[in-house]
């Protein structure tokens, strides 16, 4: 896989905890990646446990709960003075396997934004600079490139060598997009593979903890530790469902099993059918993104895949449906931040002597604590759920979501384990349908921080490639492929619900 | 059978104003009105832990000590469904003759208030766990006709935190112990037509839910809360045509009755005067006996219901429902018919015993080989009297079945008088752990059965009081009591009153 521009190509060895902290000390002030991090002394003092991830430095996004003081701030005034009393299940799993959490990364406030510039810690900067800008000495901050959002800093941390793996959260593409723009691998597993306990909810039915690393092998290492059942999260897959999915996936006779076969075989992906969805070929796609898409398809053909064209006709409706649902759920999930039980409470309100003023206190606290973009989305989300608007916005969006999910079910050869109630009977011949889909992660490379363009609608358009997979809960992964002007580009692979293993296998070869 | 709002009931309400009462009773002004009443009950389930968290559901612990992460709405916390609550809800549905739904799911109901930590309540608005069912009221429940009140649905939901006003002026104190405790909301159809039916419905609901262990169902400690919807209609109109008002914060059966009667009268008055009833939420002021406005429809909040994304749907199999059904105790109706048949008891007595958890079992153990009517009489008058005096429940009393049967046997064999037996009962219920025989010996109570001694005493007494003896013989039979009292005092109550009177009469008649 393509690693990055000249300045980072020298980093080929895996990052250790000590070197990660050195890099943080050197680079973080300029890149504004970490909101908080541990000191080297802490690494020496505590013995990390033995396990497959021993001494791996991990960066954790600021909306995943850790017990470090003031660390789980979600880049918001609402929580920056709070310390979580519990750790997210995934953090416990990773630490149990030997990993070291080196710090909490910056983000868009509460996960709301696509450019990592809407949080209280300020904008973060993409470690890559376009070749055309490299020699400029008078670069203003607005000329720097964004790492993407809202797990932009997690991707930047991996790209700059400040950690070996980073945890982010992907609601509508917020792990895959920054991974593409920072030239690293960003994985969004199937919804329910990894426990959400400890992830501060943004859009509960869409949120997934994503894994960002430099290569697919590292993603798989972290995934195998993190993807376990968790009784604390009722939407996390049970062990019986995981077993059923595995049996289903393994019964595909047309895909030769990879175990035992040498990686230097001439056609390691023989038998796998790749679908190119036509609806993703949009006007907004830049020339370079299109070129990398074609290059990816050629590479897969050379690896033995059968590449075909498929149609996902509901794709254009995905973006409006996603935003309606995501903002509605966000307005619901952010309702608890009232400053009453924890968090900052407004001091400018009148006395709370009667209920009228108590409501005012809520309003003052929330207006002070939330940034402008968060307030915007809460208001819109509240509106689409109101009794006047719900049946015109919220309910149709739910229906579109169901249509998109059913459309994926038709396109994929592997049946969806969630819809199957009868015991599976392995198909005798190869069913119609593809095994993975291939399409770009973004319409182009990372824009400048100062790019306003056609106001914020342009920001939203970046999500069109990533949102359908979020709506359907299917696994997707972004791989760095190609570059333009020294800025990285990414390609996405997506597979049927639960088919994470196949996705990793194909991604490894790309 | 339709029951029109009794004119007499209205008249009773206007008892202070006899002019109006007389007018209403006058046939010329008589206009038959009907009332349509529906109830919404919130019942706290008797589960050890909360509905979606592992925190304890005990309500009387020090404030803010039973709070799990999700109860305080901490970022990153998630709800987990407590299976015990689902079992209890299923028990409630089955004992109310409803259908446990094979698939149910949860919704969020949004509003901002200091007693709502998440900013929303997790409830079941669209797909509740229970639908249908009914409670049948009849003679055994105190009305002289049969009335079936249907149930619309039963749903699981979270309780709110407790808000305490008035402790520190200018502050509302919030106790999160109650936040997230499991409730079932039981919604009846508007089948009831009088305050009496409504009150009896609630009472029967309490009996059923206590009996099946679903809830302690007390209005006093808040484990049962009741809201009432009331509308009225003219005799020949459709029952559901009136505008209804909601009555809230009714915290006793008496308040429910008073509120319904006051509201019906208010609505009848309004309409009779040519005004329209506005859809409102009202409370009841016991002092004035009137309902008062709490909130009008215009200010009712928009709850923005949304499916709960953190909880998958609940799937319940028929086998599991049958398993729950088989674990239910015998239901009151069945007990009533069985016990009236088996023991020849009156339905009222069985119903009284059914109202006390554990009493039926107590009775059946005690009645083995004894006269059931006598046992029942002792229970319903003496034991219940003592329980009431001590404000105790039978299950919390120190009285054991062995002590009770020992007492009954001693009484039946004349080893003690009935007065002494009552004293024994008090000792047992005060906490004495000895058996009946031990206690009788310890007190030295043996019935004086030596009639000869009694006769001596009697003769002595008659000699001492010739005047009263003469009065008796002259026809003042009441003078007997004078002598009986004297002998009882002399024997320190150890003689049986029947023996004493008999002996005295013999002596008196002799002379």
From TrEMBL, chain A:
BP GO annotations: glutaminyl-tRNAGln biosynthesis via transamidation; mitochondrial translation
Gene Ontology molecular functions: ATP binding; glutaminyl-tRNA synthase (glutamine-hydrolyzing) activity
The keyword Membrane belongs to this UniProt entry's keyword annotation: no
Source taxon at top rank: Eukaryota
InterPro entries: Amidase, Amidase_dom, AS_sf, GatA
Residues in Amidase domain copies: 46-503
Keyword annotations: ATP-binding, Ligase, Nucleotide-binding, Protein biosynthesis
Cellular component GO terms, alphabetical: glutamyl-tRNA(Gln) amidotransferase complex; mitochondrion
PANTHER family: GLUTAMYL-TRNA(GLN) AMIDOTRANSFERASE SUBUNIT A, MITOCHONDRIAL, TRANSAMIDASE
Protein name: Trimeric GatFAB AmidoTransferase(AdT) complex subunit
Organism encoding this protein: Coemansia pectinata
Gene behind this protein: HER2_4
From TrEMBL, chain B:
GO molecular function, one term: ATP binding
GO cellular component: glutamyl-tRNA(Gln) amidotransferase complex; mitochondrion
Pfam families: GatB_N, GatB_Yqey
Swiss-Prot/TrEMBL catalytic activity: L-glutamyl-tRNA(Gln) + L-glutamine + ATP + H2O = L-glutaminyl-tRNA(Gln) + L-glutamate + ADP + phosphate + H(+)
Residue ranges of domain Asn/Gln amidotransferase in the record: 361-508
Keyword Nucleotidyltransferase belongs to the record: no
Subcellular location: Mitochondrion
Annotated SMART domains: GatB_Yqey
One of the GO biological process terms: glutaminyl-tRNAGln biosynthesis via transamidation
Superkingdom field: Eukaryota
Keyword Nucleotide-binding listed: yes
SUPFAM superfamilies: GatB/YqeY motif (SSF89095), Glutamine synthetase/guanido kinase (SSF55931)
Similarity remark: Belongs to the GatB/GatE family. GatB subfamily.
Record's subunit section: Subunit of the heterotrimeric GatCAB amidotransferase (AdT) complex, composed of A, B and C subunits.
NCBIfam families: gatB (TIGR00133), PRK05477.1-2 (NF004012), PRK05477.1-4 (NF004014)
Protein's name according to its UniProt entry: Glutamyl-tRNA(Gln) amidotransferase subunit B, mitochondrial
């Amino acid at each position: 896989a393509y690693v990055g521009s000249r300045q980072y190509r020298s980093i080929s060895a895996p990052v250790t905890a000590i070197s990660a902290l050195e890099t943080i000390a050197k680079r973080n002030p300029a890149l504004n990646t970490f909101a908080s991090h541990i000191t080297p002394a802490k690494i020496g003092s505590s013995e990390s446990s033995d396990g497959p991830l021993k001494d791996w430095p991990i960066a954790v996004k600021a909306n995943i709960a850790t017990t470090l003081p003031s660390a789980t701030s979600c880049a918001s005034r609402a929580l920056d003075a709070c310390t979580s009393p519990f750790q997210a299940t995934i953090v416990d799993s990773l630490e149990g396997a030997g990993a070291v959490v080196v710090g909490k990364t910056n983000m868009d406030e509460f996960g709301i934004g696509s450019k990592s510039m809407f949080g209280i810690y300020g904008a973060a900067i993409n470690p890559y600079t376009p070749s055309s800008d490299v020699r400029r000495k008078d670069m203003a901050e607005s000329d720097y490139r964004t790492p993407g959002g809202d797990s932009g800093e997690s991707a930047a941390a991996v790209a700059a060598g400040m950690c070996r793996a980073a945890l982010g959260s992907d609601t509508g593409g917020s792990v895959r997009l920054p991974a593409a723009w920072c030239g690293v691998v960003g994985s969004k597993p199937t919804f329910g593979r990894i426990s959400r306990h400890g992830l501060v909810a943004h859009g509960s039915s869409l949120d997934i903890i994503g894994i960002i690393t430099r290569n697919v092998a590292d993603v798989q290492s972290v995934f195998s530790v993190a993807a376990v059942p968790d009784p604390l999260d009722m939407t996390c897959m049970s062990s019986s469902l995981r077993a059923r999915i595995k049996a289903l996936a393994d019964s595909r006779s047309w895909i030769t099993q990879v175990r035992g076969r040498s990686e230097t075989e001439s056609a390691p992906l023989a038998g796998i059918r790749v679908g190119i969805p036509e609806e993703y070929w949009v006007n907004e796609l830049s020339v370079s993104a299109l070129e990398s898409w074609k290059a990816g398809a050629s590479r897969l053909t050379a690896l033995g895949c059968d590449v075909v064209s498929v149609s996902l006709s509901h794709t254009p409706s995905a973006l409006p449906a996603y935003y309606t649902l995501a903002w509605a759920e966000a307005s619901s999930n952010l309702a608890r931040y009232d400053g009453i039980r924890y968090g900052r409470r407004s001091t400018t309100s009148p006395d709370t002597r009667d209920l009228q003023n108590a409501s005012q206190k809520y309003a003052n606290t929330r207006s002070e604590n939330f940034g402008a973009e968060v307030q915007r989305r809460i208001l819109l989300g509240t509106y689409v759920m109101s009794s006047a608007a719900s049946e015109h916005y919220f309910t149709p969006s739910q229906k579109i979501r169901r249509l998109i999910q059913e459309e994926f079910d038709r396109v994929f050869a592997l049946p969806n384990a969630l819809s199957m109630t009868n015991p599976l009977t392995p198909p005798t011949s190869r069913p119609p349908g593809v095994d993975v889909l291939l399409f770009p992660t973004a319409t182009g490379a990372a824009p400048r921080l100062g790019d306003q363009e056609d106001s914020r609608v342009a920001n939203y358009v970046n999500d069109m490639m990533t949102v359908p997979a979020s709506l359907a809960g299917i696994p997707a992964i972004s791989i760095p492929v190609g570059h333009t002007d020294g800025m990285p580009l990414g390609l996405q692979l997506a597979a049927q619900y639960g088919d994470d293993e196949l996705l990793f296998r194909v991604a490894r070869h790309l | 059978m339709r029951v029109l709002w009794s004119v007499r009931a209205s008249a009773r309400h206007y008892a202070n104003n006899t002019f109006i009462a007389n007018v209403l009773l006058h046939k010329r002004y008589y206009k038959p009105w009907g009332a349509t009443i529906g109830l919404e009950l919130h019942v706290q389930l008797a589960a050890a832990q909360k509905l979606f968290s592992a925190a304890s559901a005990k309500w009387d612990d020090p404030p803010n000590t039973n709070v799990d992460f999700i109860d305080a709405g901490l970022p990153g916390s998630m709800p987990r469904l407590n299976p015990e609550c689902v079992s209890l809800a299923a028990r409630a549905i089955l004992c109310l003759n409803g259908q446990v739904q094979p698939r149910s799911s949860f919704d969020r109901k949004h509003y901002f208030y200091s007693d709502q930590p998440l900013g929303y309540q997790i409830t079941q608005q669209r797909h509740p766990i229970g639908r249908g069912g009914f409670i049948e009221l009849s003679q055994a429940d105190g009305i002289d006709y049969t009335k079936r009140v249907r149930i619309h649905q039963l749903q699981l939901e979270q309780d709110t935190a407790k808000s305490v006003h008035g402790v520190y002026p200018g502050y509302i104190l919030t106790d999160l112990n109650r936040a997230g405790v499991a409730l079932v909301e039981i919604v009846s159809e508007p089948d009831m037509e009088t305050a009496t039916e409504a009150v009896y419905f609630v009472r029967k609901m309490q009996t059923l839910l206590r009996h099946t262990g679903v809830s302690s169902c007390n209005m006093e400690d808040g484990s049962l809360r009741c809201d009432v919807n009331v509308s009225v209609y003219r005799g020949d109109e459709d029952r559901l045509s009136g505008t209804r008002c909601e009555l809230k914060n009714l915290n006793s059966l008496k308040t429910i009755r008073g509120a319904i009667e006051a509201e019906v009268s208010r609505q009848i008055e309004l309409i009779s005067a040519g005004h329209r009833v506005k859809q409102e939420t009202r409370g009841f002021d016991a002092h004035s006996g009137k309902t008062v406005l709490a909130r009008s429809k215009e200010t009712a909040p928009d709850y923005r219901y949304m499916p709960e994304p953190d909880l998958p749907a609940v799937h319940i199999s028929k086998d599991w429902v049958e398993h729950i059904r088989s674990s239910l105790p015998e239901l009151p109706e069945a007990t009533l018919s069985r016990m009236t048949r088996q023991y020849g008891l009156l339905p009222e007595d069985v119903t009284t015993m059914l109202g006390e958890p554990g009493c039926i079992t107590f009775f059946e153990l005690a009645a083995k080989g004894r006269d059931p009517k006598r046992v029942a009489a002792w229970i319903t008058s003496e034991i219940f009297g003592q329980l009431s005096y001590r404000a105790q429940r039978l299950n919390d009393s120190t009285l054991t079945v062995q002590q009770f049967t020992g007492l009954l046997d001693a009484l039946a064999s004349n080893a003690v008088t009935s007065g002494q037996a009552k004293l024994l009962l008090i000792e047992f219920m005060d906490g004495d752990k000895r058996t009946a025989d031990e206690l009788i010996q310890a007190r030295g109570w043996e019935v004086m059965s030596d009639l000869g001694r009694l006769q001596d005493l009697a003769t002595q007494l008659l000699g001492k009081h010739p005047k009263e003896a003469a009065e008796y013989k002259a026809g003042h039979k009441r003078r007997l009591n004078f002598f009986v009292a004297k002998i009882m005092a002399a024997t320190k109550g150890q003689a049986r009153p029947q023996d004493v009177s008999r002996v005295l009469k013999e002596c008196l008649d002799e002379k």
